[in-house]
Target: Undecaprenyl-diphosphatase
Amino acid sequence: MEEILILIKYLFLGIFQGFTEPIPISSSGHLVLVQNILDMDFEGLNFEVLVNFGSLIAVFIIYWHDLVRLVKNGIGYILTKDERQKDDFDFIIYLIIGTIPAGVLGILLGDAIEVLSTPETVGITLIITGVALWLIRNIRGRKGDGQLNWKDAAIVGFAQAIALIPGISRSGATIVAAMYLGMKQETALRFSFLLYIPVSLGTMLLSAEEVIADASQNNLWIGYIAAFLASIVASYLSLKWFMNIMARGNLKYFAFYCFIVGGITLLIIWF
Model:
């Protein structure tokens, strides 16, 4: 019976993380809160890395045609210098630039980030996320994929690096930065989630051995696999839903949500 309850908890965490990863409310912050509520203690960041990888697969599925086009045209431009393919080649370069800040800080500050994984930190940073979403709620940019530059990429990349702090939403931080820089909603969304791919993939590759060892030592293979599969499905459905919300410009509702959850969390802790 105990094993079934543990499996249900892991399945729930996979669904919960998968649903919250694409939307701007911080999946890492919510995972910290839910783990405290369910009294589940994970050693290090291994479980979070695994379920984030499930979200990565969902992003691959949704943006598959964009990825194929970028790779095809990027290689084509290198070989032929065809100007019609230059925008996609530049977009790849901008994704590389945007990946560097989070990649470097993630390696250098991994232990410090783990220390910040507390409910109090999450309460404060969720409110910060809410403020950022509120400030850009009415912005309508005009920059398309072919109008970006390296400065745009660097700024959005630094926003993603800041989101390493639990409670600061990765999608929220990158989309806020992108829209503040004048990107169209569709371009901001695409750049944000394609930027997620190299960071998540790199993190999984660096942590794969530890994830496997963690599951083996604690006999949690079934729980980990269930959470992983659940995160793929939940992330896919959540991202599709979020894309529709972005098209309607309803980010303010996520700001309200962050204010409420962050505020309640701090009230419980402080009072």
Observations:
- The first helix runs from residue 2 to 20.
